[in-house]
């Protein structure tokens, strides 16, 4: 095939004119510990830190790369394209440990991948001349370098290791089909044939142990999960519960085996990481066990709720019974007798009313009789990775029900529906279709599973029905084809094809489609596969998965709403152009190399499908062949770019004409994948077909930490809409803030001077306002100075010492004035109510979720469905997307969304209603709770917070009464800067040196944050005074993760914190509990404690002189290390206490994450709360991890 140059020049390196930079790459856990670090990573200067981290951590080959390489001559292969092997002669001259290293430059990766594609393309005779091969190589390297397109992850870390570096190893049981002979072969080595495929569909038969059966599937799944790929299967061939077995018994049914598979997947995990397995389970709607399958996750979530609530009820009542046994006037056995101890009797009755088991009650009474005065009863929480969830099944897969048109029509007509036995195809039982549909709707509403796959629609668009029907999909639902086939994905970054005038560059886009259709086709030829069946069928049908990313970003940049006729028409036209051109290229390859092996058998059906695609591209509303549900065609009148529509039409005309002449090389060519990790490596603002998720973005810095910026597309869009530079600057400042109060209308330098502030003090304040998240946190005695506050501002010292004191409010500023000033200085994180913005333009910037704290707008459920419907008629496969619904959505709305999706011709749909998972608090509740707290009095807030702390964390404590601190108390104040934000921690101590209270003061984004932290400190103080051990709080809050986080300045022991709470409780643990293992640096190593000298030190601590000193010297300030020692004790050593109990307080982390636009889940690879929706999967903006397979 002839390859043209669009992006490069002949004879010049594709990297000419591209500036590269060398940066450090680091990825850290929430506790600050390093996951990965690499210095001097070479990447193009335009690449973000996130993209850099992903290519360095995930895609660089870490070892085995020879420092010196030499080309190995091959017959009929140009020398520049030949394989490279280690240059043994040069390697002998350097030390052995320096001979093999890892990749450190992105250019090595670009060269490795593009070179391998070109090498195999040359061997497969895909190029007319050597110049075409060289052009192909150069163009692809430029495309990868400039983030124009990217293949799926397995290509990045598997492709080219043998070709580029001569890396090889023993075979892993893979198979490939020789391109010349067409024969199936067992791979002889691990790397000669790469494994570039991410998505698999596997069959399973109604057999227990033989090949192709149930247990065999678990083994095949394990092989795929181990290497990070995803797989899906339709389990409908398995007989139902109670059906006859050949030996005379009864089957245990579908669900028993699904539970086994779920446990297997959960134990293996994908890629050897903590990521959940990428797995899809599909069951037909007429299966005898369909009702149990639909309710599977509903029941499992109920089990989790029962474990959580039941354990806490038992703990509460059993502890009350134990406490009552010992807190009464009886001194003998009568205290344990409910007949004599009436208080105890009442507690037992209360426990029985709460359904606490009688034998548990009796057990506590016997326990008390033996002299025990406290118990530990384990409670569970609803964290996704908690033990409660680990005890239930169904958590390691996406579940989908295959519904037919007959079933959905039966629902609408309120008819009966037959469930069919698998053994004899007779009716198992008849149920009301509407009742089953109600259960499906309730399950989706209740726990976000199952999704729906529309079987009739899928198979009416099937290009190869003569070889069987499509039964299943990959985990993300975009790849739908025959069982035992695989698909390798690639996505084109649409934003790279928009020029400075906002015009979509059609010719460049068609060129990229051509190149990557070739890339994916070559990848089929060069690949090895995990089983014989998959190798054979992938060779025979050659399915591809080309897609795109950033449609949401493109529409925003061009000034069109995601939920608009124009936006949908643009999406439809681009999608039509991509698939039409890809099929056109496929037919041209078929002209040179022949059509796919099974094309002849399916010629009539495939040309019918291509013709239907073409009709939709031409805007036809009728005349489709063999379609029950008509597609949504392109509405040319709605598309502002007429050239784009014309190009789409022509591409389908050419595809049909060439297909009729030459056939097609590939049975399918396109899908819309989630583009999770590869979307991040391309710095895409949006993934797949998704809209944007936030108005602001948190840009990662090379040295760690983040800073807040506006979505980069918003200023471009505003310019295209006609806003002036001044107006754009004003809007941008409204979103991210000005970082100053100098020109604020409500609170500014003039109004502050009128209150008594001086220019010198205002200068101090201005410095702190640059990185402030809320101005109220800046106006305190620590920044302004206590003397100035008292003498100049006439404030009282008791007010300044009150953590809840609002200085601005006290000085006479109203709540509205403070809010306006806060928005001016720190930003609103939304465009709603922004200056100059026109009401009709707000919809352009609508995101999947409400933005910021005051944002109310977000995209409707219908807008997501309609956008999918606009693209689906022009996709070979399907679209991976989750449709978000608000918490208030009803079961009826869930069912209606499924029906609407069916009527609009979608192939699959998955819903996520906010709050349908126990492990996530409601997004809507974030605002409601803050409003409730604002309306409550400080006393009510404190009580509420204290109750929450006590409920969650008080375990073995017998509480009697509050132990108040003395009026004059000692303690210490620790000043530090965490992630650029100043934090003041003050402790209060009893006479014996134990801690009894804390105060927190800082400045952080959000009007409620300061009061939240103040009341949090009060809640902790009340807990301490009621006897809650400090250890409990340390366990709960150390290692929590939310912003601000990062480096710590001003603390001699702590140098990194994953959150404010992590910092505070590390400091308290080091100071009061001597937990030096939580410190990053120990400044006190002169006096220490070894195991052999613990008794001696304990004697010193108990000495009377230390006892008296403790009344005046702060234990915390001295970090428990101030003793009066006798001579000869100078060499006592400390051994670090390695015990470091960890417990997450996920509610705070999730709330902070959701306010930033994230989903609220923790990434299971790096632990950070930076997951966003990516199709039906989630991707992490920190490390690039994904719950899917791309």
Defining key terms:
single chain, five-stranded antiparallel β-sheet, eight-stranded mixed β-sheet, 1190 residues, 12% strand
Helix fraction bin: 40-55%
What is the beta-strand fraction?
5-15%
Shape: globular
Described by its quaternary structure, the protein is single chain
Number of helices: 41
Mean pLDDT figure: 85
Return Rg in Å: 33 Å
Give start-end ranges of low-pLDDT stretches: 270-275, 924-939, 941-960, 1085-1110, 1122-1145
Tell me the strand order in the biggest sheet. 17-10-11-12-13-16-23-22
Q: Please outline the major beta sheet.
A: 8 strands, mixed
Structural class computed from helices and strand pairing: alpha+beta
Structure summary, number of beta strands: 30
Q: Termini, distance in Å?
A: 29 Å
Walk me through this protein's architecture.
- The chain is α+β, with helices and mostly antiparallel strands.
- The chain has 41 helices and 30 strands.
- Helix 9 runs antiparallel to helix 10, helix 19 runs parallel beside helix 32 (861-871) and helix 20 (599-617) packs antiparallel against helix 21.
- It is globular, with a radius of gyration of 33 Å.
- The two termini are 29 Å apart.
- The model is unreliable at 270-275, 924-939, 941-960, 1085-1110 and 1122-1145 (pLDDT under 50).
Task: Describe how the helices and strands are arranged.
Elements: E1 20-28, E2 34-44, H1 49-59, E3 65-66, E4 69-71, E5 84-86, H2 88-91, E6 100-101, H3 106-123, H4 130-145, E7 149-151, H5 153-158, H6 161-165, E8 175-177, E9 184-186, E10 199-201, H7 214-226, E11 230-234, H8 254-268, E12 279-284, H9 290-326, H10 342-353, H11 358-369, H12 387-390, E13 398-403, H13 405-412, E14 416-420, E15 427-432, H14 433-447, E16 451-454, H15 455-460, E17 485-487, E18 489-493, H16 506-526, H17 532-541, E19 545-549, H18 551-558, H19 565-593, H20 599-617, H21 642-662, H22 676-681, E20 696-700, E21 706-710, H23 713-720, H24 725-736, H25 749-754, H26 759-769, H27 781-784, H28 786-791, H29 797-801, H30 807-810, H31 815-826, H32 861-871, E22 882-885, H33 891-903, E23 908-913, H34 923-935, H35 938-953, E24 973-978, E25 981-989, E26 995-1002, H36 1009-1025, H37 1030-1037, E27 1046-1049, E28 1056-1057, H38 1060-1072, H39 1094-1102, H40 1104-1109, H41 1146-1155, E29 1171-1174, E30 1177-1180
Parallel strand pairs: 10-11, 11-12, 12-13, 13-16, 18-19, 22-23
Antiparallel strand pairs: 1-2, 3-6, 4-5, 7-18, 8-9, 10-17, 14-15, 16-23, 20-21, 24-25, 24-27, 25-26, 27-28, 29-30
Helix pairs in contact: 3-4, 7-8, 9-10, 9-11, 9-14, 13-14, 14-33, 16-19, 18-23, 19-21, 19-32, 20-21, 24-31, 35-36, 37-38
